[in-house]
Amino acid sequence: xxxxxxxxxxxxxxxxxxxxxxxxxxxxxxxxxxxxxxxxxxxxxxxxxxxxxxxxxxxxxxxxxxxxxxxxxxxxxxxxxxxxxxxxxxxxxxxxxxxxxxxxxxxxxxxxxxxxxxxxxxxxxxxxxxxxxxxxxxxxxxxxxxxxxxxxxxxxxxxxxxxxxxxxxxxxxxxxxxxxxxxxxxxxxxxxxxxxxxxxxxxxxxxxxxxxxxxxxxxxxxxxxxxxxxxxxxxxxxxxxxxxxxxxxxxxxxxxxxxxxxxxxxxxxxxxxxxxxxxxxxxxxxxxxxxxxxxxxxxxxxxxxxxxxxxxxxxxxxxxxxxxxxxxxxxxxxxxxxxxxxxxxxxxxxxxxxxx
Length: 356
Prior knowledge:
Layout: H1 2-13, H2 26-33, H3 38-54, H4 59-86, E1 93-96, H5 98-112, H6 117-130, H7 146-152, E2 156-161, E3 164-168, H8 175-185, H9 193-217, H10 232-240, H11 249-265, H12 272-282, H13 284-307, H14 320-347
Parallel strand pairs: 1-3
Antiparallel strand pairs: 2-3
Helix pairs in contact: 1-13, 1-14, 2-10, 3-5, 3-8, 3-11, 4-5, 4-13, 5-8, 6-8, 9-11, 12-14, 13-14
């Protein structure tokens, strides 16, 4: 979550026109690349949390919770979160971002939990491993079904009529599969501590090694092969330059393998730094919404300080180092807000707190 704020700070405070595929700018590339771990881990852990939440509950209760939670996330994404990104009330321009993808994935999981675990595993495996087989299919070739393909697999703009537009940034496949994988991972978290850590580390190491081998072959798993450049740094970055929209199999292996290793390694993390990060983790949805407003307001204040004009704010062109400093300021500002809300949530007694 802290790393995610770095990427969004860079969005608002640098106008470099950074291309994630540009391997000739190592510092910028790696600043973006390290944040790739965020979205897959969020969705994997959302599925894992669904399993843990469902312990001791009937399937109907879990399914109903996931359905309502998913719809709630979509509503907030189209309203409160949308306004935070743009500071505008234009309801005719919508974007299906990460919260939208999590919401739809929860709704899909609400249906999947009724299936036996082996069936969930089959659906999950097909989505995660097989979706790159259809990369060659383009929405503009499908005529009237183009909207469905944009929603499922290819980012793109949907025209909804009467001037309304919906841009799908996070197509749903394979994100639904990532959440399904998290749900299937649930029983591992019920193992004894040492056994749990061994399984998580072994699974993470296997996935990471599989990424290295499969990526080296250029046979399958990403629409863009890595290339041998004139310099080894550019070649190494090309190796890591996997597709996020939608996430390729190799992108997911590259991120979720290390994520599982870190999940095992950080289980017993302690100390002041760990306690600070834990505060953010106690209120993830609150953090997500508020961090957008904090970053955007800082950007508006910075633009106003430069020009004195709140209406026609210029692009802010901080150096990469400057963006890192603003990111640290953002985390400092977010900490007391998250600590306050975590205490509020801890002492809350209403049923609605489970959706906060």
